[in-house]
Amino acid sequence: MSWRDAGPPAALVVIFVVFAALSSQFRSIDNVQNIMDAAAVLAVVTCGITFVLMMGSIDLSAAGVMGASALTVSLLVANNRNDNDLGILAIGVAVLVGAGFGCVSGLALVFLKVPSFMATLGVSAVGLGVATLMFAGVQPNISDAMLKSWAIERFLGFSHLTWIAAACLVVGWLIQRYTRLGRYAFAIGGAEEVLTLSGVRVQPYKIAVFTLAGAFYGLGGVMVTSQLGAGLVQAGDGYDFSAITAAVVGGTLLTGGRGGVLHSAVGVLLVVVLTNGLVQVGVSPYWQGGVQGLIVVAAVAAAVIPQRRRNQVVK
Amino acid sequence: MSTPVTTKPAAAPATVKGGPGPAQRLTSYMPLIALAVLLAALTIADPEFLTQRSLTAASRTAAPLIVLAAGATLVVLCGGIDLSIAALASVSTVFLALWLPELGALATPAVILVAAAIGALQGVAHVLLRIPSFIVTLGGMSIFSAVALVVSDAGTVRVVDDSTIAWLDLYVGGYVPMSLTVAVIVVVLISVVLKVTPLHSWISATGYSESAARLAGTPVDLVKIGAFCVSGACAGLAAVMLVSRQFSGSPTMADNLLLPAVAAIVVGGTAITGGHGSVWRSLAGALVVTLLRVGLPIVGVPSAYEQILYGAIIVAAVALTLDRSKVLIIK
Hints:
heterodimer, A: mainly alpha, two-stranded antiparallel ribbon, 12 helices, 2 strands, 71% helix, globular, B: mainly alpha, ABC transporter involved in vitamin B12 uptake, BtuC, two-stranded antiparallel sheet, 4 strands, disordered N terminus
C-alpha cells in the first residue's frame, strides 16, 4: 500500500463524514441501504470495465451491451410479450449475449486494429440497434418471480442485487489476482512491447478481457431489468461513463497497468456517495452527470501530474 | 574458418514507393464512390428519389451534420477526438432558445462565440492538464448535458419569435436550402484558411508526428486549442440550424448526431490517427451518412438498423483508413 492507494478510501471517508454532518437524512440507515442498492449495478459494470482499463484500452460499449442484454433477458423470462419462461437460463443467455458483444469489440481491436474507443463506440451503437429491434415498439414487462425479487427482497438488510454485486467483485478480484488472464491484463497495460518480445501472444488475452467485460455488462443489464421490472433499450444509459468515472476515481490509470477491482469498488462507492449526498443536501439531480464529468477530468489530471514531464505527447 | 565472400550485392533496400498504392488510392476515393453507389441504388429503389423535392429535403437534414463533422475533423486531424460536439450543440440550442427573446439577432453570434469559448476551454484542459482528448470531451459531454438539463429545467424551450434566425430556412435560387449553403461556406472557409496560412502544415505535422512538430517549432499547443475552438464554434452553428428548423431548443436535441458525425468523418477517409484527411472529405462523408439515413426507409429497412449500420460503418471505415505505419500498439 502506497500513499496513492490510500487516497481514494480516505476521500470516501471524508466525503461520507462531511455529508453525514450536513444532512441528517443522509446518515440514516435507510439511506445507507439506498446507497448500497444504487451502487450494485454500477459495481458490476465497473468490475468489467476495470479489466479493459488495466490493459490501457477503453470501453464505451456498456450502454449498448446492457440495452441488448436487458431486452434479451426480458423477452426470455416470463413476460407479457411471448410465452417464454426460461428462468435462470434466460439470465445465462443474456450474459452470453453481453460476452458476445464484448468479443466483437476485442476482435475489431485485435484483427482490424481499430482503436478500442472507436471499436466500442461502434459496438455500443450496434447493441442499441439490436435492442431497438427486439423492443419492437412494445415494452416487455417481466413477471418472472425470481428476477423481480432480486431488486425487492433483502438479505441481512441489503437487496439481493447488492449481494450479487459483492459476489461479482469477489469473482473479479479472484480473476485479477489468481488467473493468467488477470495478470496478463495488468502486464499488457504496463508494458505490452516487453510482453510481446518475451514471446507472449497477447491477442487472445485482449479478446478474452473484452469478452469478460462484456459478460459483466450483460449481467448489469439483467440487474437493471430486475430493478425496472421491464426491458428497456435505455437500460444502460450513462453507465458507461459512470463506470469509467468510478474506475478512474478509484485509482485505475487510463494508461493501464495500475489499479484493479478493489480500487474500482472504492471508486464506485465514492461516485454513488457523492451523487446521493449532493441530492440529499439539495443539489438538483440534473447536475449528477456534470459532477461526474468534473471529477473524471480532475482525477485523470491528478493522476498524470507525476508524469507531466515524461509524457510530451497526449492524444 | 573463412567462408568465400561472394560479391553479390546486398538485396536492394525496400524503396520508398513513389505514390499511393492501389488500395490507398481506392480508399481515398471511397467517399465519392460510396456517394455515387448510394445515389444510384436509391434511385433504382425509388425513382422518385432523384427529384428536386426530396433532394432538397435531404440536403436540409445534412446541413447541421456537415457543420458538426467539419469542425470535429480539425480535432481528428490533430490526432485527437471530440466526443462532446453533439452535447455542446444540444446545450447551445437551449442557450439560443433562451437568449432569442432578449438578444434578438445578436443571439446567433453570441451562441457561436460561447460554444467556441467552451470548445477552447476543453482544448486548454487537454493541452495544459495533459489529459487524453477523448476523456476531456467525454467529461465535457456529460457536463454540457447536465448544464442543458439544469438551464432548461429538462424541458423543451419554445421559440416564439424566430424572425432573426428564419433566414436559415430560406432557399437560395428557390432550390438550394440556405442552411446547406451556409454549411458549404463553412467548409470552404475552413479549407481556404488552412490553405493560405501555415495552419494546414501545422495541423498535419501535429497529427502525423507531434514530437517532431514540437521540435520543428510548430506551436502544437495553440494549434490543438484552436482546433477545439473551431469544433466548438461549429457545434454552436449547428445548434442555430437545428433551432431554426425545429422552432425550439431542447437539452437532448442534437445528442443523436454524435455517431453520424463521427461516422461522417471516418467514412470521408480522415484517419483517426491524425494528419491525413480534410474537411472536404467530411463533407462527402456527411452526405453519405445522410443518404443512408434518408435512404433506409425508402428501401424499407426499419430505422433500428440505422444504429447498427453506424456502428458497423465506424468500425469498418476506421479499419480501412487507419495509418498502420504509425501505431505499432493499438490500445
